[in-house]
Design goal:
It is globular, with a radius of gyration of 18 Å. The longest helix has 4 residues. By secondary structure, it is mainly β.
C-alpha cells in the first residue's frame, strides 16, 4: 500500500455547527468521519441552485458534498470587485431583509490550502424578493444599494453606484459523478484526482 497522509494523520476530521446556543461536532452526521488528512472545508454553491455546498480538501483529493436540503427559502450573492484586492478583502456586507439585518465579512482566507471567492452569500425567507444592501469597504468608505433582487448574484464594484447582475453558473447534474449518498441528503461527489 502507498502512504496516504502525514505522520499526524489517521485522525478523524471534525466539523462544528453553530446551533444558536453553542457548537457541536457533526462530522459523523455529515460524512466527514474519514481519516484522509483533511486540509480545508469551503462553502461554495457548486451547482448554482442557491444552496451552499461544501468542498472538502484532503491530501487524498477533493470531495464535493452537494446540499440537497429542500425548502422554499431564497438567497442573494454579492460579489465585490475593486482595483485593489485589499479594498474588498475584509469588507463587510450588511443586508436588511424585513426587520432583520445580516452581516458577512468578505475574505479570501477560507482555511488551510483553500481560498474563497470575494462573495457574501445570504439565505433569506421565501417571501423576500429584494433586500437593501450596505457595503463597508476595508478603507472605511460605504456604499448603499436599495431593493436588490434575490435569487441572483450582484457584482458590486468599488466606486460605482449600481450593480451588475450576473447569472449563477449551473453545473449540469448529469455531469456530476455522484458516488454516495448519506441520510442527511448530501451527495458526495469525488474529484477524479
Amino acid at each position: 500500500d502507498r502512504f496516504r497522509g502525514s505522520f499526524s494523520g489517521d485522525e478523524k476530521d471534525v466539523f462544528f455547527i453553530n446551533d444558536g446556543g453553542g457548537f457541536f461536532d457533526a462530522h459523523a452526521l455529515l460524512g466527514f468521519d474519514d481519516v484522509l488528512d483533511g486540509r480545508a472545508v469551503v462553502p461554495i454553491d457548486v451547482n448554482g441552485d442557491g444552496r451552499l455546498d461544501l468542498a472538502h480538501r484532503s491530501l487524498d483529493g477533493i470531495r464535493l458534498y452537494l446540499n440537497r436540503i429542500q425548502n422554499t427559502n431564497r438567497h442573494i450573492e454579492l460579489e465585490l470587485k475593486a482595483k485593489s484586492l485589499s479594498l474588498a478583502e475584509g469588507a463587510e456586507v450588511v443586508i436588511k431583509a424585513k426587520d432583520r439585518r445580516l452581516l458577512r465579512r468578505v475574505s479570501i482566507d477560507g482555511s488551510f490550502h483553500a481560498q474563497l471567492p470575494l462573495r457574501a452569500h445570504f439565505g433569506v425567507d421565501a417571501d423576500i424578493d429584494a433586500v437593501d444592501v450596505e457595503v463597508r469597504w476595508s478603507n472605511g468608505k460605504r456604499a448603499e444599494f436599495k431593493a436588490l433582487a434575490t435569487q441572483r448574484r450582484h457584482i458590486i464594484r468599488y466606486g460605482r453606484k449600481g450593480t451588475v447582475v450576473k447569472p449563477i453558473a449551473r453545473w449540469p447534474l448529469e455531469s456530476l459523478p455522484v458516488t454516495a449518498a448519506t441520510a442527511t441528503g448530501a451527495d458526495m461527489v469525488l474529484d477524479p484526482n
